[in-house]
Fold Phosphoacetylglucosamine mutase.
Amino acid sequence: MSLPLDTIQKHFDLHPKPSTLQFQYGTAGFRTSASVLDSVLFRVGILAVLRSKKLDGKTIGVMITASHNPEPDNGVKLVDPRGEMLEASWEHHASTLANADTFGDFVEALELIIKSTKIELSKPARVVYARDTRPSGPALIAAFEDGLKAMGLKGRDEGVKTTPVLHYLVRCINTKGTKEEYGEDSETGYMMKLSSAFKKLVAGKPIPQPLIIDCANGVGGPTAELLSTYLGETLPLINLNTATKTLGALNNACGADFVKTTQRLPPSLSSVLKPGQRACSLDGDADRLIYYYLDERNQFHLLDGDKIAALVAAFIVELVKSAGLEGTIDVGVVQTAYANGASTKYLSERLPVRCVPTGVKYLHHAAEHYSVGVYFEANGHGTVLFSPSAMETLAGHIPSTPAQSTALNHLINLTHLVNQTVGDALSDMLMVEVVLAHKSYSGIEWDSLYSDLPNRLVRVVVKDRNIFKTEDAERRLVSPQGLQAKLDDVIKKYDGGRAFVRPSGTEDVVRVYAEATLRPQADELAFKVAGLVYDQSGGDPLTRPK
Ligand code: G16
């Protein structure tokens, strides 16, 4: 069987590539201004069909979202059959297809992929796809569907869904009827699975004070609303920032990225949140979660991905011990360079901790090395992975006391509560609520597990972020040459100083992170480093970070 070239060309011509642009499938797929993504979406449609054929017709997922990015951006990423990120070697194929200038180049690239990956075109293909609430979504979906049509496929359109729901669906569809069956392949099926596990885990615990959720005016709003109907009284939720139809509202002065980066309350919550009350923020596609609270003096306190990791990892270690499985199930934590130094210290004194580069796929793979791998980026992306052998151990373990039996059941229920395919803000939120209920913690006690070192994140707009190359899990720069030595000279002048620089994979900026023992010093260090980065990139002195 050969490629239907006439049909492909007919559709290809409808989606011309902007001639001057180059696209790159990065840590979160393709992501840029929605206005230039039409050709990319069409080509991703074709690629998804090929990926499915390569995997004997297993269902491939496609999510159209730009997550935390501003509303005018959009993006697309592929999801492999077990609900995990696209296999790394195919990221290159995605970029090659996206960058082919002429139809001839495109066909050549397609044929090369088919040959090099040994795809049999006669194999069936299945694709399921969804989008977030961005106004550019419908047009991009149409371009993507043209890609499917060009290959003679009608995919399964899941409409507007969160990224983690799409990942969940992919795993459910591909495991249906097998012994690894993951759940019912619908959003309501997922909500039932989460709420049922949650109810078992908090049975007998007092009903907590209402939890405020800042839904970032994105797709998390309707999903949290649906979840709320299944949770009923067990967890009262107050969903705010749910204006998915208001132009310009998405991620604007709200959402997990805003809270983490500015280290303050979304202004829309300031008249609502009472001292001591728990609140959390989701991001634009509901795969990041950040908690926070105000103390009695109305002071804002952030409970970010690092604090979630510390809370959850300690709880799981306790359960493993209480279930009589210490030494059989090992628990480990994976972080990135953004992890606050105090969190790394706290965790490493209790557990094995690894540091990997930014990007969910790196954390996910590293977490797979533990029986139970807890991974969280400081920005709130994360989940807990239970390895196949841990699942077998839990299923086969015979508890010898009632206390062991209770702990074992809690662990088993946690495996149902936690999304094993990718981090899900809502599933993570339920997991946090379970731990808070079991420990009788308010935000204050949780926060006091350790004290964050003051830190600061700065975005630097540079001429070309691609000149910045890193090593050692992004903790050191290798290029531009000589810049790291200059950074080292600055950093060593600060008590407890640590800083690093890396190019963003999702925005056209370079990111700077700095921490130090004292707040003014962390701020000063971040801006000194940002200034050096800016000088190196040959930027205009008028827009130099100050
Ligand atoms: C994506 C990735 C995350 C990463 C974030 C920021 O998240 O999935 O792993 O931390 O981008 O990446 P960068 O600093 O390279 O821009 P999201 O929530 O935007 O999909």
About this structure: Residues 5-160 form a domain with the Alpha-D-Glucose-1,6-Bisphosphate; Chain A, domain 3 fold (CATH 3.40.120.10). The chain has four domains: 5-160, 187-300, 305-447, 455-543. The pocket of 1,6-di-O-phosphono-alpha-D-glucopyranose is lined by residues 27-28, 67-68, 283, 287-288, 358-360, 377, 379, 381, 504-507, 511 (CB under 6 Å). The chain is about 40% helix and 15% strand.
